Amino acid sequence: xxxxxxxxxxxxxxxxxVFLLMGFPVAFSLGACGLxxxxxxxxxxxxxxxxxxxxxxxxxxxxxxxxxxxxPFFTLMGLILERSGxxxxxxxxxxxxxxxxxxxxxxxxxxxxxxxxxxxxxxxASVISMGLISLxxxxxxxxxxxxxxxxxxxxxxxxxxxxxxxxxxxLADQLGKSVGDMYKGAFVPGFVLTGLYTLYxxxxxxxxxxxxxxxxxxxxxxxxxxxxxxxxxLGILTLVSVGVAVxxxxxxxxxxxxxxxxxxxxxxxxxxxxxxxxxGVGLAFLASVVNKLTGLGLLSRMAERVTFVLIPPLALxxxxxxxxxxxxATPTEGGAMGAMGALLMALARGRLSGKLLTQALTSTTKLAxxxxxxxxxxxxxxxxxxxxxxxxxxxxxxxxxxxxxLGFLIFVNLLIFVLAFFLDFxxxxxxxxxxxxxxxxxxxxxxIWFGVLLGVNMQTSFMHPPFxxxxxxxxxxxxxxxxxxxxxxxxxxxxxTGQIYWGAVPFVVIQIIMVGxxxxxxxxxxxxxxxxxxxDTSNVQLDVQPADDNSAKEMDxxxxxxxxxxxxxxxxxxxxxxxxxxxxxxxx
Length: 588
Description:
By secondary structure, the protein is mainly alpha-helical. The protein has 27 helices and two strands. The chain has helices spanning 2-6, 8-21, 26-43, 54-63, 70-83, 86-98, 104-119, 123-140, 145-156, 166-175, 179-207, 231-250, 252-260, 269-294, 301-325, 331-348, 354-387, 390-399, 404-419, 425-431, 433-442, 447-458, 469-477, 497-520, 549-554, 557-561, 581-585, and strands spanning 483-484, 491-492. β1 and β2 form a beta hairpin. α4 packs antiparallel against α17 (354-387) and α7 (104-119) packs parallel to α9 (145-156). The two termini are 28 Å apart. Mean pLDDT is 80; it is low at 527-540 and 546-588. Residues 555-588 are annotated as: Disordered. It is a multi-pass membrane protein. Keywords: Cell inner membrane, Cell membrane, Membrane, Transmembrane, Transmembrane helix, Transport. The chain crosses the membrane at residues 7-28, 67-85, 105-135, 147-171, 186-207, 228-248, 273-294, 306-328, 334-352, 364-385, 405-426, 447-474, 500-521. Residues 13-247, 300-524 form the TRAP C4-dicarboxylate transport system permease DctM subunit domain.
């Protein structure tokens, strides 16, 4: 019994692993393990019986957490956009745009995947949409099955790291950081990863051109009356818009200072990028509208089609991310605006129906309940785990690793990579991240940077053969048997599960390279410094000058509680009071 009492934390963690390996649902495994070992701890006098009194308060705290409201909002937005045909229009238009070059369809999938990630934030919706729409076209025109499968699955997982990602919301909540800061931190890494995907396809187009052929001339449907592609007109419009956006970005600080009435010396990079893009995109849209209404004929059909198809999702991105980055809205408010914007876009397309809305709301409710139940289970587990000094055991285990910060980061990323074979990002976020966050903070690692690093690493959980969810989503829509193509009449061979798995491997390697780049170049994570020095609190002293009774009575309340807080602020805890987290959790 003494051995059990002294080693209850590692035994409890091992018990959770056993529960999970037995196949029990994660939420119930966490809750059952927490209650079981909590009662054992009470019987062994390791835990006070009053500890469990804190459990209802913790669960009520989950229900009152405004940050988690962003999850159903962003999920609803993504599902409505996916079902309203936006992905179909984007893939068709961008496929026509990039079709004349080798790898054009793969480039279109990557581009649309990044755009869908920035509007939907839902991996399943992106992978299934692109699998249904792009995969038959890629197979029709002779794409290698491994390349086609891999690029669709990997591009869909960009929704994992490009804001408004659901995993970033959960990571911010578990690490005790702002969702807006986490979004800002992931902004640049998400698009760097998109660039790495593009470089891989460029390499294939150079060295294995037969794997990624260009679209034949007869497949390019968006053309002018004289047979020309109209790309020159689009190129000029793009150059003008980009030039205006760059010029505005260089002078954004001055514009901001003019409206604020004061000099602005330092403007965040992510804010500058979002606002400048919005200006350039707005100019292109205005030019296209004027050209269409006046019939001037200055823009080609391709230029008009690309502009009118791209602008609505880009406007939605600014509505959501722009307002968050500019500090106009919180992530929850941004999600609500995004959901409303998605409803308006579906209505404008004539795609909004009772059936679509019912399906989207049902799926959103299921996902929200799934998240909340896992969070409740993890709360039960963490309460008992903290009671048996589990965080101290994890801290001693991880801080004793050789190599300091770098050794810790290498171990943690290897741990997440291995666990991602068996757990998805929700489970990793609720089980592992709460144990790693305090240790990272004690080692002097910025938690925003750490959260983005974990988010990129967790992205591999969708791509790992054989349990990656993105691979399952793609398998569900990929052809299981040979079929006759309706357009060409040719027989198209099926896609095997092995081809899907082998197609995913290069992109998993790219994701691992991205993890290494973030560690090597921490400033890739915008919105904060990657690593900082830990604050040494061991020698902090508080000197209070004694005061007589009369002066104490005349002391202003603001001097005690701070301006604007008054008596509602929490009183300062006396130095002699206990700092035992068990007593605090039990309300003593």
